[in-house]
Amino acid sequence: MKVVIVGAGYGGLRAVEKLVKRKNVEITLIDKNPYHYLQTEAYGYIAGNFDICDITVDIKSWCEGFSRDIHFIQDECIGIDTNNKTIQTKGQTILYDELIIATGAKTNFPAFIEGLKEFSHGVKVLSRAYQFKTQFEEIIYKKVKNSDHKEFNIIIGGAGLSGVEIAAEMAYISQKFINSIGIKKGNIHIYLIEAYDSILNGMDSYIVKNTLIRLDDLGVKVMTNSFIDSVSQNTVHLKTGENLEFDFMIFTGGIRAIGINDIFDVKKNRLNQFIVDSYLRVEGFEDIYAIGDCAEIRNLKGDILPPTSQIAEQCASVAAKNILRKLDNQPLIKYDGKMDGMFVALGGEYAVGTMFDTLKLKGYMAYLLKKIITKSYHYGLKLRLNNSFRTRR
Ligand SMILES: Cc1cc2nc3c(=O)[nH]c(=O)nc-3n(C[C@H](O)[C@H](O)[C@H](O)COP(=O)(O)OP(=O)(O)OC[C@H]3O[C@@H](n4cnc5c(N)ncnc54)[C@H](O)[C@@H]3O)c2cc1C
Fold first, then answer.
1. In this model, does residue 124 exceed pLDDT 80?
2. Does the CB atom of residue 260 touch ligand 1 within 6 A?
3. Assigned fold of 2-107+256-340+373-392
4. pLDDT, average across residues 228-240
């Protein structure tokens, strides 16, 4: 059986790991990039705590770390022919028996907010995170070089998980600079702007409350109920009529599934995500699964689950199991996932989080737990890479 997986993000890689154990399954993994991008670590990269090698993994080498062939194609998928069961990339046509789409999502820059896309950055792709990091460093460098008292404003639009983590980490790093190289306190301002009346919309109240306290301690100016009307070269114009000047701006206000979602003409939601059944198959297709951020994922109660790496990986396990169960003529299993926990990194060695609905933690212990979770993921990828380098020697 030929299984094709499009997208080597959190969902795609987990699907490979689950399918690889079955010898009679031929696996092809396709990604437009040569690297797997650990988006969950982007906040630390932007703030200068991590290097590029801490947030990327070479996919080809990772595939070579398995004891059997995983065929990796670095190319962009540009079409699906469901009648002939083929995937078209820019360079070739690939046959599939079962297909897993795991192409993620991008930052959604709503077109009705004039100037937003033009003048702000997203972090869902590595090139954008890199530009943002470079600009942040440039600002700090200019401050060190000139030691002037010019004020710098950084605006983060969207106070979801990624916006909050980035704001906190940048505020923490800025404070370090204030303490070490004499940048005048109060010279770097970080604004976190949110359209809703609360940050971290939908998250546990313990997390929200303690995140607000930490952001306040770090000097982040949180502005809720603040809807961005438009953005010009260096100014955000709010619906309230207030204007905020910025030196640079990042937007993390939501996601939109693009790419394959645009070319595959099936039912989608308002975020352009595929609608899947409880087995995670794209509605109307028994041999096409969609997992992770590219799909609207619901539990069996019908609640929509948040687009996180945790959910993408859970979906990958269920989709892979279902492909193998079909091969074995066994009934498919339904996906009924949930978030086992959520930890929010809040600058330096500080985090807030909850686990298994009962454990609530903040401060260093929460930071340690978050680190263990993210490090063990990275460690698993690294082990596979080491395997690959050993066998190549
Ligand atoms: C700053 C930040 C912090 C976050 N923190 C957390 C956190 O703490 N915990 C958590 O659980 N989640 C977190 N998330 C969310 C998490 O990163 C995403 O939910 C996760 O990446 C989704 O995984 P995925 O496999 O669906 O897609 P992705 O990881 O986005 O992977 C999609 C892959 O598909 C490839 N691709 C796309 N289109 C094509 C195409 N047409 N052809 C070929 N390849 C294609 C891309 O190159 C990419 O490699 C965070 C996200 C951000 C940005």
1. yes
2. yes
3. FAD/NAD(P)-binding domain (3.50.50)
4. 95
> What number is the average pLDDT over the span 125-140?
84
* Best mutation site among 78, 293, 296, 344 for ligand 1 pocket (most ligand atoms within 8 Å of CB): 293
Overall average pLDDT of the 253-266 stretch: 92
Q: Report the distance separating Cα 190 and Cα 318, nearest Å.
A: 41
CB burial class (10 A; 0-12, 13-18, 19+) of residue 358? exposed
Q: What is the pLDDT of residue 48?
A: 80
Domain boundaries, the chain: 2-107+256-340+373-392, 116-254
103 lines ligand 1 (CB under 6 A): yes
d(CA 313, CA 15): 8
The CATH number that domain 116-254 falls under is 3.50.50.60
What does pLDDT average to over the chain?
A: 91
368 conformational bin, left if phi > 0, alpha if psi -120 to 50, beta if neither: alpha
CA distance 215 to 221: 8
Domains 2-107+256-340+373-392 and 116-254 share a fold: yes
Q: Is 313 in the pocket of ligand 1 (CB under 6 A)?
A: no
Mean pLDDT computed over 186-199: 90
Confidence of residue 385 (pLDDT cuts 50, 70, 90): confident
pLDDT in tens, 351-366: 999 998 789 999 999 9
What are the strands of the beta sheet with 221-223, ordered from one edge? 221-223, 188-193, 152-157, 248-251
